[in-house]
Amino acid sequence: MQGMPSHTLELGPLKWCANFTRTLGQRLTRFPEVGGQRGGILRLWREVHDAMTIAESFIVPHTPLDILDVRHRRRDSALAQLVAVATRSGVVRDPDVLLDTLQQRERMGSTALGKGVAVPHAHSIAVSRTHMVLGRSVHGLEWRAADGEPIRLAWLVLTPSEVSDEQHHARVAQAVSALRLQRQRQRLFDAANTEAAVRLLREWNAWMP
Description:
Elements: E1 7-9, H1 13-30, H2 40-58, E2 63-69, H3 75-88, H4 95-108, E3 112-114, E4 117-118, E5 121-124, E6 131-141, E7 151-160, H5 165-178, H6 182-190, H7 194-206
Parallel strand pairs: 2-6, 4-7, 5-7
Antiparallel strand pairs: 1-2, 3-4, 6-7
Helix pairs in contact: 1-2, 3-4, 6-7
């Protein structure tokens, strides 16, 4: 794997509509009895619409994402590399403060979620713009995960202090959502380049499975 440039994730309206129609059809095929219920189709329509709206809100237009290979094995060194990438992208006001914030957060409680995934995050004055950095580690990172597994995917979520808590939490939820299934984690880890990884993320956030 090679170092990868930043990309912006965005779901166009035509694709959204096509995905909505397809997903609604899949749900009707899976639950045909709903169509015979009073108000059933409308209820299903609302469920699909709400699910897709939530999924789409996880990755908002013009939210950059960097993807890179993490060289280090230790958590703090890996965090420093993720912060360095975000700094080069011009979204960090003070990298030392940001790194210290992330390290303190880990000492308070690990952001490792288990199954080889960690989602470190900071809602900080040290950040100038919302940004995400996904680090992939071939050998695994020592992150003190509760299940003891080394971290292979570390998704750093950064939002400036002027952004609301709700927006920050939505972006953290986006990262967790994209990494929640083993097959998704493996496909993302195996993506040959940035374009392939971004296509996967767009696909997974276009509709709720």
